[in-house]
Design a protein that fits this description.
The protein has five helices and five strands, in the order H-H-E-E-E-H-H-H-E-E. The chain is of the alpha+beta class. It has a five-stranded mixed sheet, covered by helices on one side. The longest helix has 20 residues. It is globular and about 45 Å long. Bound molecules: zinc ion. Zinc ion binds next to helix 3.
């Protein structure tokens, strides 16, 4: 492992991958999204329950895969739980900007998620980091029911 890659596996990321937060199923979820990253073998199942005020009252995930994919999902759920839909969309945009963007360190609203910014140098790792967020994007668009997303496709495919 080279030193650049080692930098990716910082303590926070390893901690979240080993002890993911908000990990589990959500019996009364409004929307469930399965995300696949076949390039790395990562999988995420994201479940969201919206509150009466349309906030993300509950957000949980299960999954398996590399440290980056699971830590990104764990950090994402921590940041978004209880947040408004608008705040979630803002966070999604900020994270996309961080991962796809240039040299800046990302928006302050991202907090620890900025630790994942180093993946932008590794296109395969970008897919790992974005997997949970692609699932979130589908969950916010679809609002109810179930969907499947893949890092190899554009957009989400509603499940019949
Ligand atoms: Zn991965």
């Amino acid at each position: 492992m080279n030193s650049e890659l080692e930098e990716l596996y910082q303590e926070v990321i390893l901690d979240h991958s080993r002890r993911p937060r908000n990990f589990g199923t959500l019996a009364d979820a409004a929307v469930r999204v399965h995300g696949d990253n076949p390039a790395c073998g990562d999988e995420i199942d994201l479940a969201v329950k919206f509150g009466d005020d349309d906030s993300l009252q509950q957000i949980k995930f299960t999954g398996q895969g590399c440290a980056i994919s699971q830590a990104s999902a764990s950090l994402m759920t921590m940041k978004l739980k209880g947040k408004s839909r608008a705040a979630a969309e803002e966070m999604l945009g900020a994270f996309r900007g961080l991962i796809a963007g240039g040299s800046d360190d990302g928006s302050p609203i991202l907090g620890d998620l900025r630790l994942l910014g180093g993946v932008r140098k590794f296109p395969q790792r970008v897919k790992c980091a974005m997997l949970a967020w692609r699932a979130l994007d589908a969950a916010l668009r679809q609002n109810a029911g179930a969907a499947v997303v893949s890092t190899e496709d554009d957009g989400a495919t509603p499940k019949p």
